[in-house]
Write a structure and sequence with these properties.
This protein is an alpha/beta fold and 281 residues long. It is built from twelve helices and ten strands. The protein folds into two domains: 3-67, Orthogonal Bundle (Chemotaxis Receptor Methyltransferase Cher, domain 1), CATH 1.10.155; 80-279, Vaccinia Virus protein VP39 (Rossmann fold), CATH 3.40.50. Strands 6-2-1-7-8-10-9 form a seven-stranded mixed sheet, with helices on both faces. β4 (175-178) and β5 (181-184) form a beta hairpin. α1 packs across α4 (58-67) and α5 crosses α6. 36% of the residues are buried. The protein binds S-adenosylmethionine (SAM). S-adenosylmethionine binds next to loops.
């Protein structure tokens, strides 16, 4: 691949998804795009670049971009955010009028483990408290990558995937085994819906959210793109809402619209909004 091909292909990815591919990641293009080259009968990445410069290459450019996203995920990833959420949701439930749904957004949800981890917490909270069970809760999972959304909607996971991060009792209770795979029980999955959404777009069309998980995606963006995405999230977050970022991510120094919740790493609220008393450190 020539340097100009590398620059051309990585610019397409940055424009379409925000993802930055560094000069040391040429191998990633070679390996992830090999099946695409084969299918399109293209000799190499230079030939792909030439094809993408021709008219009507939009679908191919999008497919290439999606192939270059990293979709790693696991159930209850990093544990702590989910324990924080488990304590937060009953507080939010009490603070809201009956009949108002609690809305949770798993932005960049990949194959759905994050959304379903939240759904499992909801099921557990509902079993412990009939009043919470009566609360309508919506979980929206979104991603830019069509293939992972299809997997998220299917709600079926391999033995390897369910073994990562999930207690065995939770697995047995919340999933049904189908040969070597595990399907999330429909009643647990019921609050979850999955749709395509590009974080570079305007999230206001998705409505207002009480909780946003936007984890392990900002790491792929440059600072202006992080600021744009976080600014958008600040616009749709409820005044007492919570934003969860990944362990290697921060909003500090990126936007002033979001501030860390006292005493918690990786959990943010809107700048200048009052904290519910019981959640103050
Ligand atoms: C590493 S996964 C994170 C999954 C999950 N949030 C977690 O922490 O386990 C990153 C996801 O971000 C998605 N993604 C990348 N750029 C995106 C964009 N501009 N808009 C929406 N999703 C994007 C990728 O398709 C990928 O599924």
């Amino acid at each position: 691949m020539t340097p100009s091909t590398f620059a051309f292909l990585t610019e397409i990815v940055k424009t379409r998804s925000g993802g930055i591919i560094g000069p040391d990641q040429g191998y990633m293009l070679e390996t992830r795009l090999a099946p695409l080259l084969k299918r399109e009968s293209l000799a190499d990445l230079d030939a792909l670049a030439a094809r993408l410069k021709a008219p009507r290459a939009d679908a191919l450019a999008q497919e290439m971009t999606e192939l270059l996203t990293t979709n790693e995920s696991s159930f209850f990833r990093d544990t702590r955010p989910f324990e924080h959420l488990r304590a937060l949701l009953p507080e939010m439930h009490k603070a809201r009028p009956a009949g108002q749904p609690l809305r949770i957004w798993s932005a960049a949800c990949s194959t759905g483990q994050e959304a379903y981890s939240i759904a499992i917490i909801l099921a557990e909270l509902g079993e412990a408290d009939a009043s919470f069970k009566a609360r309508r809760v919506e979980i929206l999972g979104t991603d830019i990558t069509t293939a992972v959304l299809a997997r998220a909607r299917a709600g079926v996971f391999s033995q390897f995937e369910v073994q990562r991060g999930m207690p065995i009792r939770t697995l047995m209770k919340r999933f049904v085994q189908e040969d070597t795979r595990w399907r999330i029980r429909p009643e647990v999955a019921a609050p979850c819906r999955f749709e395509n959404f590009n974080l570079l777009g305007d999230p206001r069309r998705l409505g207002r959210f009480d909780v946003v998980f936007c984890r392990n995606v900002l790491i792929y963006f440059d600072v202006p793109t992080k600021a744009r995405v976080l600014g958008g999230i600040a616009q749709i977050l409820a005044p007492d809402g919570a934003l969860y970022l990944g362990a290697a991510e921060t909003a500090m120094g990126v936007t002033q619209a979001l501030v860390p919740k006292p005493g918690e790493r990786g959990v943010y609220g809107l700048a200048g909004s009052a904290e519910p008393a019981r959640l103050r450190a």
